[in-house]
Amino acid sequence: MKLYYSSTSPYVRKCLIAAHELGLADRIELAPVVTMPTAHSPELMRDNPLCKLPTLVTDEGQALYDSRVVCEYLNDQGGGALIPAGGGKWAALVDQSLADGILDAALLMRYEVVLRPAERQWPAWRETQEEKACSALGQFERAVGGWPADRLDIGVIALASALSYLDLRFPDLDWRGPHPGLAAWFADFDQRPSMRATVLKA
Length: 202
Description:
The protein is of the alpha+beta class. The chain folds into 2 domains: about 1-75, Glutaredoxin, CATH 3.40.30; about 90-195, Up-down Bundle (Glutathione S-transferase Yfyf (Class Pi), Chain A, domain 2). About 55% of the residues lie in helices and about 5% in strands. It has a 4-stranded mixed sheet with strand order 2-1-3-4.
């Protein structure tokens, strides 16, 4: 399998964490590419017309995208339970959507500051995205105390990816202060070998 890769992509990291947890990491070839809203990779666009990360090319040559599809494929390939059966499935998938929403908001915040010329930046846009991210963090803070200590599914993997991206790109946000329960959970989860093997690098 080939995974188009960027060391700063939290969505790619989500897939790599899943691959490590499923014992599939050594079967994946990483193909580094540079892509952003203002510049595309011709190589990546050949396999994904949206030119977005992550994109996984299977051993059979089929291209899969986005991170949710890639993670579900990896879970099937590894015979895992990152997407639980029964009622737990929907809780895990909703948590994945909520965590991915934090990432969506964070990326829009970053693009507004890094890519848009200063005279065209819209402070209210960033503030609204930050409010969305903080609202989602608040929901996780209210829920985390009820999670099993050994919870491991696609929902918490997506959440860990989102929190680590906030640490990388928005250290001034101080998400830990208002969310002590979530901070304690992340401090523990972040020690997993799958997390240590996939650290985001600017």
